[in-house]
């Protein structure tokens, strides 16, 4: 799943949650849409589900018409920096992209085809902004340069958090993930769904810094790391799914 590329503008080199993670985020969102909103989205997505498009942005990022979105999947914040203080990527990052997409969707001025496109962007990027290593350090390309082993196989810390934790901990379908983790009561869900994309980025970056602290270069990761960190993965996927639902419910109410 992990594909390494080095963009001339320099930056993170992976996709975000693997396909499973993005499907789970979309499925949690779908599970929390108001019925009228689900109906409108079904029309906007031409009969398709949110899950159908959850990873679409990763597939088209290198296609010429969509190259402008290549840097929208992450915001690499170096050690000692904050999002506010860090040098901004001139081609955009996950926060600038999300703010723009949400504001355009709220404006109600998009053509039908642009609205479809922006909803597809939104479904994916709300997942990415909750993906811890997508706020990783610029100096190590979001931990792509931090070598570790995962059950004895050489890999890097970014890949562990994008894919391996989600894929290894449970062999659930996205539906089974929803059944097992989207279990909070209404009040608790509302509390989790609060905040702005800027708040979520800060929160994700705090999770990311803790991961750096806990996972030095050349760590040999296996069961203990999986058990210790699995709740963090669950938490980030749930936050993303509930927040995506909340944005869509407020735009299409
Ligand atoms: Zn992505």
From TrEMBL:
Keywords: Disulfide bond, Endonuclease, Glycoprotein, Hydrolase, Metal-binding, Nuclease. The keyword Cytoplasm does not apply. Pfam families: S1-P1_nuclease. GO terms for molecular function: endonuclease activity; hydrolase activity, acting on ester bonds; metal ion binding; nucleic acid binding. CDD domains: S1-P1_nuclease. The keyword Transmembrane does not apply. PANTHER family: ENDONUCLEASE 4 (PTHR33146). This is S1/P1 Nuclease. It comes from Alistipes indistinctus YIT 12060. The lineage of its organism: Bacteria, Pseudomonadati, Bacteroidota, Bacteroidia, Bacteroidales.
